[in-house]
Write a structure and sequence with these properties.
Blueprint lengths: L7 H13 L2 H8 L3 H15 L4 E3 L4 E3 L1 H21 L12 E5 L1 H17 L4 E5 L2 H9 L5 E4 L9 E14 L1 H7 L2 H5 L10 E2 L5 H11 L9 E2 L3 H9 L4 E5 H10 L3 E2 L8 E8 L8 H13 L3
Parallel strand pairs: 3-4, 3-5, 7-8
Antiparallel strand pairs: 1-2, 5-11, 6-9, 6-10, 6-11
Helix pairs in contact: 1-2, 1-3, 1-4, 2-3, 5-12
Length: about 300
């Protein structure tokens, strides 16, 4: 695949579709119209005599033939782009690495871990956001690395586990004193009179904690919502109520007593984070340097 020499433009378009996961996203990356991308892919499929992509309701899925072709051409095409494109200019040797992920994890753990690289001359551009939109943008070439809270679907992206974050049920000492031992004796019903602080109205983290630890559905609504878990921790430490948050966000407050664990289960709920990238999109090793540094740092978190 293909049977004879292929037009480089067709191969570039194919690789963009393979990485982006859709004709529309690839067209945006390439600066082409979506019909042009479709026409070029069909031409390459006719030349090779095999279907390259399965058309889905949203996007496309590569066939085994497409995966094989992408593995063969990604390195050479990326090297050619690096040698002949804007990256060939000497002043572009320090092109920034574009990193994206959850705002709280970036601000609390990731950026401090990457500070030594910045001091050594590595340039970074950081974007905060939710996992699914960031992964779509990664497929479209807008980011180099994404820290995701779930493993991406499909084979167009490469994901490496970074580690697990543990969720804890916490409150300020004043609420812990008021509750006394009621939580152990009565279960989560003891918290019905305590305000709940959360980062979203649908309470995904709290609901998961209730199912995993207490084995029942959550039966309360948030008194305060803050769209940033760091704000949730700050409000709870100031006495606003209770919350379920990642342990790394409140470890210092737990250590100095500003927050207290209301519950300490043997099997707390956890969530695995992944460092995700597009295979073959790092011809000069800039992304690999940041990736390897982050993975090494994550082992100490």
């Amino acid at each position: 695949m293909p049977a004879g020499p292929a037009d480089l433009n067709l191969l570039r378009t194919f690789l963009a579709v393979h990485r982006a996961g859709s004709f529309t996203a690839a067209a945006q990356v390439l600066g082409l119209s979506q019909p042009t991308v479709t026409t070029q892919i069909r031409a390459l499929e006719r030349q090779g005599g095999r279907e390259l992509f399965e058309r889905l309701p949203r996007g496309v899925a590569p066939t085994p033939a497409a995966d094989e072709l992408a593995a063969r051409i990604a390195g050479p095409l990326d090297a050619l782009a690096a040698a002949t494109g804007p990256g060939a200019r000497p002043e572009a040797e320090g092109e920034p690495v574009h990193l994206a992920g959850p705002a709280e994890l970036l601000g609390t753990l990731v950026l401090p871990a990457l500070a030594p690289l910045v001091a050594e001359g590595v340039r970074l551009r950081v974007t905060a956001g939710l996992t699914e939109p960031l992964l779509e943008e990664l497929r479209a070439g807008r980011h180099d690395l994404v820290i995701a809270t779930s493993r991406p679907r499909g084979r167009a992206l490469s994901a490496v586990p970074m580690g697990d974050e543990e969720f804890v049920l916490v409150a300020a000492p004043v609420w812990a004193e008021r509750l006394g031992g009621r939580l152990a004796a009565e279960g989560p019903a003891a918290l019905h009179g305590v305000p709940l602080v959360a980062y979203a109205e649908d309470l995904p983290i709290v609901r998961r904690y209730w199912r995993h630890v207490f084995g029942r559905r959550l039966a309360c609504r948030a008194a305060l919502t803050v769209p940033d878990l760091r704000g949730v921790v700050a409000a709870v430490a100031a006495g606003a109520g209770f919350a379920v948050v990642p342990r790394y966000l409140c470890a210092d407050r737990l250590a100095d007593g500003r927050l207290v664990l209301l519950d300490d289960p043997e099997d707390p709920p956890i969530n695995t984070g992944y460092l995700v990238e597009r295979p073959g999109a790092d011809p000069d090793g800039r992304v690999a340097r940041v990736r390897d540094h982050l993975l090494a740092a994550a082992r100490t978190w």
